[in-house]
Amino acid sequence: MRDEGRRMKEECADSLPSLVLKGIEQFNRGEFFEQHETLETAWRAEPGRIRDFYQGILQVGVACYHIERGNASGALQVMERGLRRLRPFEPECKRIDVARLIADAERLRDEVTRLGPEQLSQLDRSLFPRIVMLVDDTFFSARKCRV
C-alpha cells in the first residue's frame, strides 16, 4: 500500500501530457463532448494509476454534457463515478487543484439534484466546474488562469 501511494505521488508530480492539456482546455471552454474524445484517448493510452485521474476529469465533463442535453439521471450517475475516481488524488495532482474541482462538481451535483429533471433547464451554467491549475505554489482563479 505504501508503494502504491508513493507511485501515485510520483505520477502526480509529473507534468501533464499535451493531449491531457488539450482536454482540459476543452473542458474549461465548455466543449464537453470534445473533451471526452480527447481525454478518453489519453486515459486509454496511460498504463499507470494516473489514468483514473484522467478518467475522473473526463466523467465530470461528461456529466456536464448530460446536463446540457437535459439528462439529469445520466449526469448524476456519471458525476458520482467521476468523483470517486478523483478523490484519491486530492488535494492536488499534476498541478491541478483537485479539491476545488471536486467541491465545484459536488455543488453542481447538488443543484442538479435540487432542480430535478423537470427544472434542469433552469440550471445556472456558471455552476459548471472549471479546472484550476496551481502555478508557482499559488492557486489562480479559473477566470485568471484557465488551462
Folded structure, characterized:
There is one protein chain. With 147 residues, this protein is mainly alpha-helical. It is built from six helices and four strands, in the order αααααββαββ. It has one domain: Hyaluronidase domain-like (Orthogonal Bundle), CATH 1.10.3450.10. The strands form two sheets. A two-stranded antiparallel sheet has the order 1-2. A two-stranded antiparallel ribbon has the order 3-4. The longest helix has 19 residues. The termini are far apart.
In DSSP terms (H or I, runs of 4 or more residues), the helix count works out at: 6
Query: Could you report the average pLDDT, rounded to the nearest whole number?
Result: 90
CATH architecture: Orthogonal Bundle
Report the oligomer.
single chain
How far apart the termini lie comes to: 33 Å
- The first-level CATH class is given as Mainly Alpha
Percent helix: 55-70%
**Widest sheet: strand ordering:** 1-2
Q: Which stretches are low in confidence, meaning pLDDT under 50 for 5 or more residues running?
A: 137-147
SSE order, as H and E? Answer: HHHHHEEHEE
How does the overall form come out from the CA principal axes? globular
Main sheet makeup? 2 strands, antiparallel
How many domains make up the 3D coordinates?
1
* CATH topology grouping: Hyaluronidase domain-like
CATH superfamily: TTHA0068-like
Strand content: 5-15%
Give the helix/strand class.
mainly alpha
The count of β-strands is 4
Radius of gyration: 15 Å
